[in-house]
Write a structure and sequence with these properties.
The complex is a heterotrimer of chains A (506), B (323) and C (372). Chain A contains 17 helices and 22 strands. By secondary structure, chain A is an alpha/beta fold. Chain A has three domains: 6-238, P-loop containing nucleotide triphosphate hydrolases (Rossmann fold, 3-Layer(aba) Sandwich), CATH 3.40.50.300; 243-338 and 423-506, Rossmann fold, CATH 3.40.50; 356-422, no CATH class. Chain A has a six-stranded mixed beta sheet with strand order 6-7-8-3-9-10, with helices on both faces. In chain A, β14 (312-317) and β15 (320-324) form a beta hairpin. In chain C, α3 (57-82) crosses α14 (304-327). Classes of the chains: A alpha/beta (506), B mainly alpha (323), C mainly alpha (372).
Chain lengths: 506, 323, 372
């Protein structure tokens, strides 16, 4: 066997009392595409951030081309030939492509000769790898797919021999994914080594020759991709066989209780993000909304929940118009009318993380009885309520007085769910309910949503996890570029069909 | 002709009055472009004014006074960095602390050392910067138009005035045409991008604060060793805040910030002229109202023209790498 | 390497009492250094401060008089800060609040005295709040940073008041820029008056019943911030504006309310100064108390229970400080403004300087006592 280009030995890393990486060993051969797969929170990104010099391991060694290296900062890693494309792009939005790429590697204090040379080199690189990027365009004008190419070009310009990509497809349409994979294959042809971090099994099977599986901070196995299959990998990832679809009875669809007609919504920068969207939700059903991130889901949820004003069209709750171009009811009134909202981003919107847990458990309902009376908060009632729901939703630790930021992601999500579901809403808007949540909590959350449906609630489930949409929804609509591009009954649809719709091709 | 002379003298004062604002705005530009809020310009300006006056008095050299003022201001900027960059403390609180500390300490020490109710001793001519008459200014005095512009408006300023106006294109050049400027701008927009490019975010912010300290020192020295011949208490009189408003109004760009500083300078020059002069149709405006115009103008400018989206993206946020 | 502390195990007193005390000690050490640089003996200064503020009844009464002012301005800063607003315009709001007290008292002096007092208190609150309104509105609607606008409003308030005192409401019989005195029956009873009732013979001190009003205001603020839905909403907006919008809480409304309450509290300084002490408007009567409120609030961690001892500490520094300035020619009251700056630095901006070390010290001790 050829000696590995990158070798990790006994890497350990802890954040506080969270042991994110435990005794990790890994060998990556030169010129291969090596997959690292694992659930959210398995420690993949932490491990690769250590390789990229962003974090320092508490113990362990890293060898590159057989030589031990100390990677104390990204600079060390870059100089050792490592490049990384992060999940959230590391680009300065109002800089040009060129400025972003030379940042840190300008080669001269005053821009002049080296800048010209850099331009030439970059144009050559673009041609070699068919990247097709205009160096003078501003990042904020580029689509997500192009931004990712800028990131790849940046790494190549800095002389990367090993390119790490952290969940590169989460923000891409299937076509963009195809384009990316083409680029990655051609990089491999040219002798580069690629490390692909993902939690998507299909990508591993498509692209890699070797795969390493991580679970809860540990490396649980290494396989040749040819000699394994999805089911085996899934079992290794989760530690037991996976329930891909939750057991649920068929829906007892009732009246339409929530309807959206000809909706147009703009974002903060005045860009139209929802172009013309109509759909209905019935009592007792879950309507899944699938789509790649950034196709208008965020703005849609904000418009439906009374956070964002709409440009035209109307939104009706129980036949009452709650939003049109002139007016919209604010979230407080909507909550009183029986519309609850679990927002996509719990830290940014769903919680005040500096509040105590009990304060978050009444957030948005704090003005109602029994939590307050004549504007005075009723502490006793709030605390006894909090203890009760934290028990019911198995929030750990069960201490209402603890500051919310001290809870894990899954438990924070349970705090939001218990709050929003407690009032038995007639209509429930749910965004990314299990993002960054551990497996046990995912099942729990899914079961709660099904229970709500069975009790007759109308649920809109917005998720970028296709599996989640498929496993929970009764009907599925697909959103692409601000439009609903298809509607399917869940029973007779495959993920392939949905994938095509999400790409805007079908 | 009298009107023309009036206008010339008004413009002359505008350039002089704008000078400390320009230094302060450029100083603020470096800090804020790198993502560090600087409400502390006021306090640093005071510190510089005090140190420059005292240094110049003891060492009989205004230049040495300026150097000491630079050292003082860079130290204060480093303190701001220590609190808000290294220890991730609240940047506004740190600035307020520096301002109040300097209002107190400068006057307290002036009183302790010179016992004159917080005044430093009056500087002799060799201890301060004097007005510079440019070459040929005297001989061109009587040439129409050119004489007016060259001799009456451009010539006859303190050295800091010329430095300030040279500074603006240099700042522009540094910020937009050098790798240092590129890194400063990047660290204020997206520090993670800078970190992953192998540049230390903290050291970039410290460097920006160092430049900030050097520049703000000039503003203070101008006040106490050029325009005035001593330090007196709270002599910065809100100029640090006005400069910051000019910077914000100028959208963190050197050129537009310069224009805003000139606008403030002009308003101030005008208000000095207008004191005690009846205005046709209105009559005599009480002097207190006229004196308040720069402050009112600041509020109006900030209210009328500032959008939120244009500030450096990462301003005010400490950089936290580990989760 | 940063020390990571398991926050759930930190005892509350370590986080809320030990850490602030350590910060305070550091600030006082640095302040001692300043006094040394000014050419005086810091220990001697401490002695003078303690004697001046506690050593005799009138001195202590003076201490409490200053404390009264700092409670008002400290509470003012704290309320706005809970909504994440830096109201550093307490000085101007206090100035205008004083105008409110005076105008109401002089114009309604025909009414029974207790009613005039109540109206004057309302005047202080309304005028102070009104002066905070424009910066509040501009912050809420236009995003103009409240730090700059409130500072500008301090300058504008000062110009306005000088104009009024020189041209409009000046006591023309006198030289200085101040108004006529209020009728004697409207003056707040002082500590001396009470002491005399009980047969104690003491000399004059400015301590008056405003002190009790300040204590009541502290209770009010505590109740407002922690026990009512308004306080809850202000804190939500302050911590996470987007989450507040999601929960149907209007940032706009809360920014305005927080600033109005804040301005009103700052305005109440006028009660102590006008009804209790000067009995007329004197140019520049807020004398920096508004700024001191920032240090008081930050040291008191923006909680009324913390603000009271912090205000008392500054009362001691002011009163003891005047003793120092009397005995030590090299020390002026500006030295104590510098001390405020140092305290803001250590209790505010550098509050986390030694927090990780202190907290992990106590967590380790607890872990040792009860091994898991």
């Amino acid at each position: 066997m050829v000696s590995p280009i990158l070798e990790l030995k006994d890497i350990n890393k802890s954040f506080g009392h969270v042991h994110a990486n435990k005794n990790i060993n890994l060998q990556i051969s030169k010129g291969t595409i090596h997959g690292i797969i694992g659930e959210n929170g398995a420690g993949k990104s932490t491990l690769m951030s250590i390789v990229f010099g962003l974090y320092q391991a508490d113990s362990g060694t890293i060898n590159i081309n057989g030589k031990s290296v100390k990677l104390k900062s990204p600079r060390d890693s870059i100089e050792s030939g490592i490049g990384m494309v992060h999940q959230h792009f590391m680009l300065v939005e109002n800089f040009s492509v060129l400025e972003n790429i030379i940042l840190g590697f300008e080669g001269e204090l005053v821009f002049g000769k080296n800048l010209e040379k850099a331009k030439k080199d970059l144009i050559n690189l673009c041609e070699t790898y068919k990247l097709n990027i205009d160096l003078d365009s501003t990042i904020s004008d580029l689509s997500v797919g192009f931004r990712q190419r800028v990131e790849i070009l940046k790494s190549l310009y800095r002389g990367a021999e090993i390119l790490i990509l952290d969940e590169p497809t989460g923000v891409l349409t299937p076509q963009e994914v195809d384009e990316l994979f083409k680029i990655l294959r051609s990089l491999k042809e040219e002798g580069k080594t690629i490390v692909l971090i993902t939690h998507k099994l299909n990508e591993i099977m498509d692209l890699t020759s070797e795969v390493s599986v991580m679970r809860q901070g540990e490396m649980v196995g290494h396989k040749k991709t040819d000699s394994t299959n999805k089911e085996d990998l899934a079992e290794m990832m989760v530690g037991r066989s996976v329930l891909l679809r939750i057991n649920k009875s068929s829906a007892k669809q009732g009246e339409v209780v929530f309807s959206v007609k000809d909706l147009v919504v703009k974002d903060d920068l005045d860009v139209t993000r929802i172009k013309n969207v109509s759909f209905d939700i019935h009592e007792g059903e879950i309507l899944g909304l699938a789509g790649v991130t950034g196709n208008g889901q965020t703005e849609l949820l904000e418009a439906l929940s009374g956070i964002r004003k709409i440009e035209s069209g109307e939104i009706k709750l129980f036949n009452e118009i709650i939003s049109n171009q002139n007016n919209f009811l604010d979230p407080r009134i909507l909550k009183e009318k029986g519309l609850a909202h679990v927002p996509e981003d719990r830290q940014r919107m769903g919680l005040v993380t500096d509040f105590k847990a009990y304060e978050n458990l009444i957030f948005g309902y704090h003005h109602q009885e029994p939590f307050s009376k004549s504007s005075i908060l009723k502490e006793k009632e709030i605390l006894s309520f909090s203890k009760k729901v934290m028990d019911e939703y198995d929030v750990r630790p069960n201490s209402p007085n603890l500051i919310t930021s001290n809870f894990s992601g899954g438990n924070q999500q349970k705090i939001i769910l218990s709050r929003e579901l407690n009032e038995n809403p007639k209509v429930l808007l749910v965004g990314q309910p299990t993002r960054g949540v551990d497996i046990g909590a995912i099942e729990f959350i899914h079961q709660r949503l099904i229970d709500m449906r069975n009790k007759g609630a109308a649920i809109l489930l917005v998720s970028v996890e296709l599996d989640e949409v498929l496993s929970l929804s009764d009907r599925i609509v697909v959103m692409f570029d601000g439009n609903i591009v298809g509607e399917k009954i869940n029973k007779n649809v495959t993920d392939r069909e949905l994938g095509l719709l999400m790409a805007g091709v079908a | 002709m009298e009107n023309l002379a009036d206008i010339a003298s008004l413009l002359n004062s505008t350039f002089r009055i704008s000078t400390p604002l320009i230094f302060a705005a450029m100083a603020g530009l470096f800090a804020e472009r790198s993502g560090v809020i600087d409400f502390g310009l006021e306090g640093k300006m005071l510190a510089a004014a005090f140190v420059a006056a005292v240094g110049s008095y003891y060492f009989n050299s205004p230049w040495l006074g300026l150097v000491l003022a630079i050292i003082a201001c860079v130290s204060l900027s480093m303190l701001h960095g220590f609190a808000s960059v290294t220890h991730k403390g609240d940047q506004v609180v740190s600035c307020v602390a520096i301002n109040i500390l300097m209002i107190g300490l400068t006057t307290a020490l002036a009183a302790a050392w010179f016992g004159q109710a917080g005044l430093t001793p009056t500087l002799k001519d060799n201890q301060r910067f004097l007005e510079i008459t440019l070459p040929f200014a005297d001989s061109l005095q009587n040439v129409p138009i050119i004489g007016l512009i060259y001799s009456d408006i451009i010539s006859g300023h303190y050295i800091f005035v010329y430095i300030a106006y040279l500074l603006v294109p240099i700042v522009f050049w540094i910020v937009f045409k050098t790798s240092f400027g590129l890194r400063i701008r990047a660290v204020g927009e997206n520090p993670s991008a800078v970190d992953t490019a192998g540049i230390n975010v903290f050291s970039m912010r410290y460097k920006a604060l160092m430049v900030n300290g050097v520049l703000i020192a000039f503003a203070g020295a101008h006040l106490s060793t050029a325009v005035n011949a001593n330090f007196f208490r709270e002599m910065s009189a809100g100029r640090g805040y006005l400069a910051l408003a000019a910077l914000i109004f100028g959208k963190w760009h050197p050129k537009t910030a310069l224009i805003a500083c000139l606008l403030f300078g002009f308003t101030d020059a005008l208000q000095i002229r207008l004191q005690g002069v009846p205005i046709p149709g209105i009559g005599l405006i009480p002097v207190q109202f006229i004196q308040a115009t720069p402050y009112i103008l600041t509020v109006v400018l900030l209210a009328g023209f500032v959008g939120k989206a244009i500030a450096p993206n990462a301003i005010g946020q400490p950089y936290i790498k580990e989760r | 390497m940063t020390t990571v502390v398991d926050k759930t195990k930190v005892p509350w007193w370590a986080a809320n009492i030990i850490v602030p005390l350590v910060n305070l000690v550091l600030a006082l050490l640095v302040s001692g250094l300043f006094i040394f640089i000014a050419g005086e003996n810091p220990l001697q200064a401490v002695k003078l401060i303690i004697y001046g503020s506690f050593g005799y009844v009138e001195g202590f009464a003076y201490t409490l008089y200053y404390t009264t002012n700092f409670i008002f301005t400290g509470l003012a800063f704290a309320v706005a800060f809970h909504c994440r607003l830096f109201n550093i315009g307490g000085e101007g709001q206090a100035y205008i609040g004083g105008l409110g007290v005076f105008l109401v008292a002089i114009n309604f002096s025909f009414l029974p005295v207790p009613i005039v007092w109540l109206l004057a208190i309302a005047g202080a609150i309304i005028f102070g709040a009104a002066w905070a309104f424009i910066p509040a509105y501009l912050q809420a609607k236009r995003g103009s940073h409240v730090v700059i606008t409130t500072i500008m409003f301090n300058f504008i308030a000062s110009s306005l008041m000088i104009f009024l005192l020189v041209d409009v409401i000046r006591d023309t019989a006198q030289m200085g820029p101040h108004t006529v005195a209020l009728p004697k029956e409207l003056w707040f009873p002082t500590f001396k008056d009470f002491a005399h009732l009980f047969g104690m013979k003491i000399r004059y001190s400015p301590l008056n019943i405003s002190f009790i009003i300040a204590i009541i205001a502290s209770f009010f603020v505590w109740f407002l911030i922690w026990k009512t839905k308004w306080g809850y909403e202000m804190r939500a907006v302050g911590h996470n504006t987007q989450a507040a919008i999601y929960a149907g809480i209007s940032p706009y409304k809360n920014i305005i309310i927080a600033m109005l309450v804040s301005g009103g509290l700052a305005g109440m300084l006028g009660i102590n100064e006008i009804l209790g002490v000067h009995h007329k408007i004197v140019a520049g009567f807020p004398a920096g108390y508004g700024f001191t409120g920032i240090a008081v609030a930050l040291m008191g961690r923006n909680h009324p229970i913390g603000i009271f001892p912090a205000a008392l500490l500054f009362g001691i520094l002011y009163q003891g400080g005047s003793e120092v300035t009397f005995d030590m020619p090299n020390i002026t009251r500006y030295m104590f403004i510098a001390v405020q700056g140092v305290i803001i630095l250590f209790s505010g901006a550098l509050e986390n300087l030694f927090r990780p070390q202190i907290e992990s010290f106590f967590v380790n001790r607890i872990n040792k006592e009860n091994p898991a």
